[in-house]
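Hi R.,

As promised on Friday, here is the backbone we talked about, encoded as structure tokens. Could you run it through your design pipeline when you get a chance and send me back a sequence?
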């Protein structure tokens, strides 16, 4: 993570419930402790849950920018930490895949790369919808989350297949065995003072 060109980090899971958003929020908070400016982005435009982990309400966000309804600064929020910022998914659109492919997401990341040291993307479950396959193409590092005693063993070869077919680069497997109800760093760094910055199978 110390390489200057490794800025955009995608956090993925195959299905819901594996702790992806939990990992995203805590990972972003941990990165900010090093003094780096970190932006956490809710890129699950179909069933956004990031706001629940941040202890805030859903508001304007990424979908507004992709629709040309809001500018970059309008959708940036600052946490109680000076180095920690976030963008919510925003209003659920009718055409999430089209929005992510219309060129505005690439523009969003280009601006974010200039202003932040790290950008953490909290993606939609990659097996359920195609959106994350698109956002991962813009990522420098891709993390795939598996949750012990929850995720299926078959997910590992599925992930390998997706990585190969979609040419997803710099992919890493993260094993999550943390209580999802615990907020960890999120409790300290996310839940105070927000403001706008202008079928049954074996388990793993």
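Update: got your reply. Pasting your designed sequence below so it's all in one thread:
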């Amino acid at each position: 993570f110390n390489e200057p060109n490794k800025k955009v980090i995608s956090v993925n899971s195959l299905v819901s419930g594996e702790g992806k958003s939990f990992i995203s929020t805590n990972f972003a908070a941990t990165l900010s402790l090093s003094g780096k400016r970190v932006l956490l982005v809710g890129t699950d435009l179909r069933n956004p849950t990031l706001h629940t982990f941040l202890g805030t309400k859903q508001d304007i966000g990424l979908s507004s920018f992709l629709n040309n309804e809001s500018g970059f600064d309008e959708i940036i929020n600052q946490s109680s930490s000076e180095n920690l910022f976030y963008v919510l998914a925003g209003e659920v659109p009718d055409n999430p895949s089209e929005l992510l492919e219309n060129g505005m997401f690439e523009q969003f990341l280009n601006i974010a790369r200039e202003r932040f040291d790290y950008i953490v993307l909290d993606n939609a479950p990659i097996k359920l919808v195609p959106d994350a396959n698109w956002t991962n193409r813009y990522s420098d590092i891709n993390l795939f989350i598996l949750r012990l005693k929850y995720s299926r063993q078959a997910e590992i070869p599925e992930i390998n297949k997706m990585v190969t077919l979609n040419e997803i680069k710099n992919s890493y497997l993260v094993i999550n065995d943390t209580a999802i109800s615990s907020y960890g760093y999120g409790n300290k760094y996310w839940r105070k003072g927000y403001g706008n910055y202008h079928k049954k199978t074996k388990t793993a």
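One thing I noticed while checking it: Residues 20-32 form the longest helix (13 residues).

Thanks again,
M.
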